[in-house]
Design a protein that fits this description.
Oligomer: single chain
Largest sheet: 8 strands, mixed
Number of domains: 2
Order of helices and strands: HEHEHEHHEEEHHEHHHEHEEEHHHHEHH
Strand content: 5-15%
CATH superfamily of the largest domain: Periplasmic binding protein-like II
Structural class: alpha/beta
Helix content: 40-55%
Number of strands: 12
CATH topology of the largest domain: D-Maltodextrin-Binding Protein, domain 2
Shape: globular
Number of helices: 17
Length: about 425
């Protein structure tokens, strides 16, 4: 039997050992896992991902002694969804991670994402009105904020300045509307060599999505039911039929655009800064002058824009909720990080930055666009995308294209398409 004095020594030793362990544990750094992919998120190349991320992490770790952020490098954009799916299934979801536009609602519904409303409401330093209209709201589901926008890739309109100048047409300003757009397309669409075939065109790549954005079409009700038999949709498709008729069954192709035979083409911001003909960019459209302006809208007074978002969110299972919120803000909210989005990313900042900042103004000037133009586009009314799977989108593409090419009654055709789509959704 152990004597009482020895028991006291053993007990004291255990206390000392426990204290030592607690001190060692307290001194261990908190490790936050970050989920990111490399390269561009918009289908165009980028090599600046790690420089951008590492700069933010260096500042974050300096402001949070004893905290370390780790991430896996080398994950490509195309592999990222499956990489994340594996981490979620194995319970190894990163604390903070990038979210693709198409994955946001699924993550929110599956409970993968932490509801950010408590952090937002309790953080006096977080001001939601710093974001451009609609960009923060795109990260919500069922009134809960599940993600913050990191960057946005708005759609713009490519303009072949050389072609318009040759035709004696003024470059449209930022308030142009769909009537101006059609009038210019009609004026420039010609058979230049007189062989009976159109060889100069108004627009390439302008489809039903662009037309419906211009007319502020909302394809679904709040319950998610599709509603296609609307006057605005009939008008949008009617405008597309008029544009198609100008081409006289000779639609333009990518070669026509590359050769300078097309006046307009929808172009994302990421494509613009990738193909803008500067020495450090990919050379394209270098044999004529061109620029980008906002997409045309239904009226000169109202403007609508569409595009894609890249989000970041927090795992619902994180053990470091407050630190993860701080890291999320370091990427998606802090001024310096959002300026670096502009300088190093392939999108624009969802935060309203000072367009007169010499660094921002100088950067945009160097790539052939203006800070004012970007600001004007992002201040327009956002057009929300509708969640549709690939089979629904294929059916929409096929049937609407048939309406554009054919002579069917649009009201009846849209009513039938609406019934078919809603029936298909109810059976899934």
């Amino acid at each position: 039997m152990i004597s009482k004095p020895k028991l006291r020594w053993v007990a004291a030793g255990l206390v000392v050992f426990a204290l030592a362990l607690s001190i060692v544990y307290a001194q261990r750094p908190a490790v936050i896992r970050l989920g990111i992919f490399t390269g561009g998120g918009w289908g165009v190349p980028s090599a600046s991902t790690y420089a951008f991320v590492d700069g933010i992490l260096e500042r974050f770790e300096a402001e949070h002694p004893g905290v370390r952020v780790e991430y896996d490098s080398g994950i490509r954009h195309g592999d990222y969804p499956s990489w994340m799916a594996d981490r979620i299934l194995t319970g190894e979801c990163p604390d903070v991670f990038l979210i693709l536009d198409e994955d946001l609602l699924q993550y929110a519904r599956l409970g993968v994402l932490k509801n950010l409303n408590p952090q937002i409401s309790s953080d006096p330093d977080f001001q939601p009105d710093r974001y451009y209209p609609g960009t923060l709201e795109r990260g919500r589901y069922d009134i809960q904020q599940f993600a913050l926008p990191l960057e946005y890739n708005p759609e713009m309109m490519f303009v072949n300045i050389s072609l318009l100048e040759k035709e004696g047409i003024s470059i449209p300003d930022e308030t142009w509307d769909v009537d101006d757009f059609y009038a210019i397309c009609k004026q420039v669409t010609k058979d230049l060599d007189g062989n009976g075939t159109i060889d100069q065109f108004g627009v390439y790549g302008y489809d039903w999505r662009h037309a419906m954005t211009a007319y502020d079409v909302h394809l679904a009700t709040q319950s998610g039911r599709l509603q296609l038999n609307q006057p605005s949709i009939v008008t949008a498709i009617g405008r597309l039929k008029e544009l198609r008729q100008l081409e006289q069954e000779t639609p333009p192709n990518q070669d026509d655009l590359d050769a300078g035979r097309v006046a307009f083409a929808p172009m994302s911001y990421a494509e613009f800064i990738t193909y803008n003909p500067y020495p450090w960019r990919i050379k394209r459209y270098a044999n004529f002058d061109w620029r980008c302006i906002p997409m045309p809208s239904q009226t000169k007074e109202d403007g609508f824009y569409s595009g894609s978002s890249l989000y970041m969110g927090i795992s619902s299972r994180t053990l470091y909720a407050n630190l993860s919120w701080s890291l999320l803000k370091a990427f998606c909210y802090e001024e310096q990080s959002q300026k670096e989005i502009v300088f190093n990313g392939l999108g624009v900042s969802p935060i309203v930055l000072d367009q007169y900042d010499p660094e921002i103004d100088g950067y945009y000037e160097n790539i052939g666009i203006s800070a004012t133009l970007v600001d004007n586009i992002m201040k327009k009314n956002p057009q929300y995308s509708v969640e549709l799977d690939d089979s629904d989108l294929l059916l929409l593409d096929t049937r609407i294209q048939s309406m554009i090419d054919g002579d069917d009654d649009l009201d009846l055709a849209l009513m039938k398409l609406e019934q078919d789509l809603n029936l298909a959704k109810s059976e899934k």
